[in-house]
Specification:
alpha+beta, globular, 809 residues, eleven-stranded mixed sheet
Length: 809
């Protein structure tokens, strides 16, 4: 029965692979896949069924014991760091090899090699972002400045390659068999590239969209609809924090004006708005036990195999446990016997665009400071499966690579835009996590963070001695107000970054009087911080809900923190829906039909909790999307990319300025429309939409409508995905579970004499779809349940799933 089920999954996946864009000529013969000795049959197992008691590995100086618990979480016990990293690489590759390699291929722009021509545009985009170039700079930085880190990365790489070398076709991950290619060697470059890929996942900008809007609306209206700072702000670092440093001076050059552009090009993808991550820590004054408690739940794409892989890593000097990133060393979000830490995205603007003027079609020179200076040509050869290689010439300026030009996404010969990004620079993010894994104090935490450049992150911290802290860490450009908000003139040196904010002047706090620290992708600081802080995607609801709950709570326990991480309260709806309902029902003579009254009754009875089986959040979601489009669709510009004001700004206009001209659509009539008219007309459209969906037989409970699904990394492999997860939450809610994003890892740690920890993620430890450990945590995750994540020591693991000893060869 087990083999039959996996056969059905495999065949369905093959049909989808062929029908949904994988070239027919590139799908391997079914005979090959059905081969009982080498085909998919060999992937229908759980890891404990094929466990080996001992494995001999070159490069180890002493045995490493690997003890797996009942959830296939490995606990590695090594005698030194180098052996530990080699073993981590080997063990991770055993369970996640295909995922590691696929993600680095995506980062490098090498997907065409395995799926054919349909991926060429994606590969060109990845290479023009400069991720590969940034990884090269990172590797050179390690060679020159941190050979000890590079040595450990090379040990990890050796562990991965030792697994690949002993891997036979029968045991190869099934994705290689379906896509008909083979794994290649791992390298230190790939580990650095993977960390650059994470930077790419977490950074965004709206320079193109804002530039188009500015050209149409003017500076004054732009500042009204897209303010740099909002009044209703509860920043990461408490608003009354006192800054005890002398800031560097930075002023906007006199008379400097942005060039007027109007651009018909498609921007590169940015992170999805409304989702993000949460972390917080409370000190002993607010907990029942008197011990600090730390919580972290980074919200990322919901994929299988899961982004994270849980491990415990031990040497005689330290023991650390938590979420690792397959392909990178150590634990990324976790804890040891003395401290715990976690991360959220700091959403800072560290990626800017410059308009470049080339001297002629050769693009060998470009104008800077009214002089022609030399550019650099980088030839990118994109290998294409079943076809000849595609050659792309990417021009590099002193700013960075020219992403858009006459050969890529630009129809205008004169529009060339170069990308300047901190991820292009040499850095050593890997060292941050290696040091955090061993850290014992707040001083160690700060020393570790000094190595971290990109992506900008909010690092939460708690220690057994009672300290709690937060630091907003990254390499932040020193900018004058509004610098980088729009496309800049690459010829004018006044638009250059002026340097970087010193790391010790990045926002941070230690043991604030309120007894807690927290972040949820909101503004980093209050107005008193002396440097310009900007991003287009700061969060406005989760952070205020978190801080309100933490402010009101005492005698906090781990159970309280579980409830908070899974909190479904929709603060956005709570603030704006009562006003929408008031305007809707303001006319007492208005008679609603039966369908409309049913929706009104449902919303009137809704308590603003977006739980899975209620309809209130579904109605509100439909109504809000139609209301927002009705208000802002007049900003659309004939195919040019723009962005609407966010939910928070839209809500503030509805609540505080209902008669403002933003609600008027000049194309409808001479009458000045107000928030009331927009609300009433959008509700009518909502009733119509609800009726249409009901007639089509759609299930309209929130879970069914939201349709959270956890996709395989190859979207076409639907049979290896997990569809329609029954769970609540949503954008701008602490439980920020939307269609394709959510809590990729939930962790809770209480730092007492004996560390107590719990955690969960939406997937399983195995990357093999045929394993019982592939998706075994999803149901628990969807219900807000957790697994025990306490530190385990060798003599305490009596009920191990299995044990493997890695011996020196």
């Amino acid at each position: 029965m087990k083999y039959f089920g996996f056969l059905i999954v495999l065949l369905v996946t093959l049909v989808l692979a062929v029908g949904l864009s994988v070239n027919i000529g590139q799908v391997p013969p079914l005979g090959y896949l059905l081969d009982p000795y080498h085909g998919f049959w060999q992937n229908s197992y759980s890891e404990d069924e094929k466990a080996k008691d001992e494995i001999n590995l070159d490069g180890l100086s002493a045995p490493v014991e690997v003890i797996y618990d009942e959830n296939l979480i490995p606990h590695l016990f090594a005698q030194n760091d180098k052996d530990l990293m080699l073993a981590q690489g080997f063990v991770t590759a055993q369970h996640r090899l295909w995922q590691m390699e696929f993600q680095t291929r995506a980062a490098a722009g090498r997907i065409s090699e395995i799926v054919g021509r349909q991926a060429i545009d994606f590969d060109r985009m990845q290479r023009r972002k400069g991720l590969g170039y940034g990884a090269e700079m990172g590797l050179q930085f390690l060679t020159d400045n941190s050979p000890e880190t590079l040595e450990l990365i090379e040990a990890y790489s050796k562990g991965v390659n030792l697994y690949i070398e002993q891997l036979n076709i029968a045991e190869m991950p099934v994705e290689y068999k379906i896509l008909d290619y083979r794994p290649e060697k791992w390298s230190a470059y790939k580990t650095v590239l993977l960390l650059k890929y994470m930077a790419d996942m977490l950074v965004g900008d709206k320079d193109i969209e804002y530039t188009n809007l500015r050209a149409e609306l003017g500076e004054s209206t732009m500042n009204k609809l897209f303010p740099d700072y909002t009044e209703d702000n509860d920043p990461v670092i408490e608003a009354d924090h006192v800054w005890d440093f002398q800031p560097l001076e930075i002023k906007k050059p006199a008379g400097l004006e942005y060039p007027d552009f109007s651009i018909l090009i498609e921007p590169i993808p940015s992170p999805e708005p409304g989702v993000g991550s949460n972390n917080w820590a409370v000190d002993g004054s607010k907990t029942r036990s008197g011990n600090p408690i730390l919580a972290n739940d980074p919200h990322l794409g919901l994929n299988l195999p899961s982004l994270w892989y849980v491990m415990q890593l031990s040497t005689p000097e330290y023991t650390v446990k938590g979420a690792t990133l397959p392909g990178a060393l150590g634990v990324i979000s976790g804890f040891n016997e003395n401290i715990a830490w976690g991360v959220t995205n700091a959403t800072r603007d560290v990626r800017d665009w410059y308009a470049i003027e080339f001297k002629d079609k050769s693009r060998l020179e470009y104008r800077y400071n009214d002089q022609w200076i030399q550019s650099t040509l980088r030839l990118e050869s994109i290998e294409v499966k079943g076809d000849s290689a595609f050659m792309d010439t990417v021009i590099y300026t002193h700013y960075g690579p020219v992403m858009y030009d006459r050969t890529f996404k630009s129809n205008d010969q004169k529009l060339n835009f170069a990308l300047k990004w901190t991820a292009h620079e040499g850095s050593n993010e890997q060292k941050t996590f290696l040091l955090l894994n061993k850290a014992k104090s707040h001083r160690d935490y700060l020393a570790a963070l000094d190595n971290f450049t990109s992506p900008a992150q909010n690092f939460v911290f708690a220690a057994k001695n009672g300290d709690i802290a937060m630091k907003v860490q990254g390499k932040f450009p020193l900018k004058w107000p509004e610098q980088g908000k729009y496309l800049m003139d690459g010829n004018n040196p006044s638009f250059e970054w002026s340097g970087y904010i010193p790391s010790n002047q990045n926002p941070s706090t230690l043991n604030p009087e309120r007894g807690f620290v927290s972040s949820a992708n909101q503004y980093s600081v209050g107005k008193d911080y002396p440097y310009y802080v900007f991003d287009n995607s700061f969060e406005h609801y989760r952070n205020r809900r978190i801080n309100s709950l933490l402010q009101s709570k005492d005698n906090i326990t781990l159970e309280d923190m579980k409830v908070m991480q899974f909190d479904d309260y929709d603060l956005h709806a709570a603030e704006v829906l009562p006003i929408m309902m008031r305007y809707l029902q303001e006319d007492s003579t208005k008679v609603f039909n039966e369908d409309a009254q049913m929706l009104i009754d449902s919303l009137s009875n809704w308590d603003f909790y977006a739980d899975p089986d209620v309809t209130g959040p579904t109605i509100f979601s439909i109504w809000w999307s139609k209301l927002k489009a009705g208000i802002w669709s007049k900003l659309d510009q004939k195919g040019k990319s723009i962005v609407y004001p966010n939910n928070y700004i839209t809500s503030r206009f509805i609540v505080d300025y209902p008669l403002d001209s933003v609600f008027d659509d000049p194309s409808t009539s001479a009458k000045l429309e107000t928030a009331k008219e927009q609300i009433q007309s959008s509700f009518e459209a909502t009733v119509e939409e609800w009726g249409r969906l009901s007639k089509e037989g759609k299930e309209l409970s929130w879970s069914k409508y939201k349709h959270t699904n956890i996709q395989h990394l190859v979207p076409n492999f639907k049979a290896f995905s997990y569809d329609s997860v029954h769970t609540g939450g949503g954008r701008s809610i602490i439980n920020a579970t939307s269609e394709r994003h959510g809590a990729s890892w939930r962790m809770l740690v209480e730092l007492g004499e004996n560390v107590k920890a719990q955690g969960i993620y939406p997937g399983g430890q195995s990357g093999n779809p045929g394993s019982r450990f592939y998706a075994n945590m999803i149901d628990k995750w969807a219900k807000g349940e957790y697994l025990n994540m306490n530190l385990n020591f060798r003599d305490e693991m009596e009920s191990a799933l299995f044990i493997t000893v890695l011996n020196p060869n």
